[in-house]
Automatic annotation (TrEMBL):
The keyword Transferase applies. One of its GO terms (molecular function) is L-serine-pyruvate transaminase activity. The keyword Transferase applies. InterPro entries: Aminotrans_V_dom, Aminotrans_V_PyrdxlP_BS, PyrdxlP-dep_Trfase, PyrdxlP-dep_Trfase_major, PyrdxlP-dep_Trfase_small, SP_NH2Trfase/AEP_transaminase. One of its GO terms (biological process) is glycine biosynthetic process, by transamination of glyoxylate. Substrate binds at residue 365. The modification N6-(pyridoxal phosphate)lysine is found at residue 201. Belongs to the class-V pyridoxal-phosphate-dependent aminotransferase family. Keywords: Aminotransferase, Pyridoxal phosphate, Transferase. Pfam families: Aminotran_5 (PF00266). This is Aminotransferase V. Its cofactor is pyridoxal 5'-phosphate. Residues 44-353 form the Aminotransferase class V domain. It comes from Sporolactobacillus laevolacticus DSM 442.
Length: 414
């Protein structure tokens, strides 16, 4: 079929994206992405790489030497860490409280881990002591834990588990994809050994780059698995390499860290424009200030929750472990969740998310992340949701949602 000129045109409808990612990208990030390409060994570019590492350490609140991005979406960061740590037969414990715990299981299995899982009902998190008891029982090499579980909107406290892992000589790998840049992630204080952050969530950078950080405990394992061929390994590399080489080439952290070190050993071609985007995104986070940024996320969350409740809807999940960047709303009985989402998108250009598995059709998930985490967006999603519910035949308290949310903002301004 011949395509008309009209059909060949890229058409992007205006949207407010209020999902748990991808979210609206900060225009300053989009501008950075349109800058000219540099060669990856150009000192001007390696300078940018070094700045990214410095800013990542600050955003991850760590003194770790290694803090750099993996090219690929967030799960590329998860896979790089797991691939580089897990040898066939290694025990890996995954406490699962939502869908992203399953992702750790899936990746660990592919690299031959002996997987042990524990679970708790969706909408809650683990009592840290239960996880610690399980670690003592299983004695895993790696514990893989999600910090902010976007599928259920819950946040797992990590400090106690982190300290216990240090004592028990277990490596703690944390998926902080949906909290990094929007809620406190204290890599050093909480004794997290490897942490993966996200780009298209609270950093408001497009999907396609995954910031990670890890400490010497992780580095020791990685170096022991360094491949010694190819004439690039140093004598000291050869001395420490004892274990089975890392199975993945693209996700081999021992090679990637050489690429990010002063040695600049070639691995893949760095995704130049994504690097610019990450640089600008991190700059914006640190410019705002971590504390101020987290406070902004909490304020918008509070206004959104107040509005939802004033609308007569129920929030889903245990409020004590709610993620500040994702708010889950129970779909009223008899209402088709997707019908309401479709009206919201068609009439208002606002996108919210459904959920997965047992929660599919049962909850809506509203993201307030990064650049999209703003008063105008919160008020718009409340107005749109209320109107869409009425359109779908639901009788709700008309007009009260916005007033409740505006009250929260007014109080904060006083
Ligand atoms: C979004 C998300 C991921 C996956 O990210 P991709 O960029 O889609 O690979 C992993 N973990 C959590 C908690 C997430 O919210």
């Amino acid at each position: 079929m011949e395509r008309t000129k009209e059909q060949r045109m890229l058409k992007i409808p205006p949207r407010k994206i209020m999902t748990p990612g991808p979210v609206e990208v900060d225009p300053r990030v989009l501008r950075a992405m349109s800058m000219p390409i540099l060669g990856q060994f150009d000192p001007a570019f390696t300078q940018i790489m070094n700045e990214v590492m410095v800013m990542l350490r600050e955003a991850f609140q760590t003194k770790n030497h290694w803090a750099y991005p993996i090219d690929g979406t967030s799960r590329a960061g998860l896979e790089a860490v797991i691939a580089s740590l897990i040898e066939p037969g290694d025990r890996m414990l995954v406490p699962i409280y939502g869908r992203f715990g399953d992702l750790f299981v899936e990746i660990g299995e592919r690299y031959g881990a002996e997987i042990h899982t524990m679970s708790c009902p969706w909408g809650t998190v683990f009592d840290p002591q239960d996880v610690i008891n399980e670690i003592k029982k299983v004695r895993p090499k790696v514990v893989a834990l999600v910090h902010g579980e976007t599928s259920t909107g819950r946040m797992q406290p990590l400090a106690e588990i982190g300290h216990a892992c240090r004592e028990l000589d277990t490596l703690l790998v944390v998926d902080a994809v949906a909290t990094f840049g929007g809620a406190d992630v204290r890599v050093d204080d909480w004794c997290l050994d490897a942490v993966i952050g996200g780009a298209q969530k609270c950093l408001s950078v497009p999907s396609g780059i995954a910031p990670i950080t890890y400490n010497e405990r992780i580095e020791k394992v990685i170096l022991s698995r360094k491949k010694v061929e190819r004439g690039i390994a140093t004598e000291s590399d050869k001395k420490v390499a004892s274990a089975m080489p890392i199975r993945s080439n693209y996700f081999d952290l021992s090679q990637l860290q050489d690429y990010w070190s002063e040695r600049r050993l070639n691995h893949h071609t760095e995704a130049t424009s994504m690097e610019y985007a990450l640089h600008e995104g991190l700059h914006l986070v640190l410019d705002e200030g971590l504390e101020q940024r987290f406070a902004r996320h909490l304020l918008n969350e509070k206004a959104l929750m107040a509005g939802i409740e004033a609308m007569g809807l129920d929030l889903f999940g245990d409020p004590d472990c709610k993620m500040p960047t994702v708010t889950c709303v129970s779909v009223p009985v008899g209402v088709n969740a997707d019908d309401v989402r479709n009206v919201l998108l068609d009439q208002f250009g606002i996108e919210i998310a459904g959920s997965f598995g047992s929660l599919q059709g049962k909850i809506w998930r509203i993201g307030t992340m990064g650049y999209g985490c703003r008063k105008d967006n919160v008020l718009a999603v409340l107005a749109g949701l209320e109107a869409s519910l009425i359109r779908c035949g639901v009788t709700v308290c008309r007009g009260e949602a916005l007033q409740a949310a505006m009250d929260v903002y007014d109080e904060a301004a006083d």
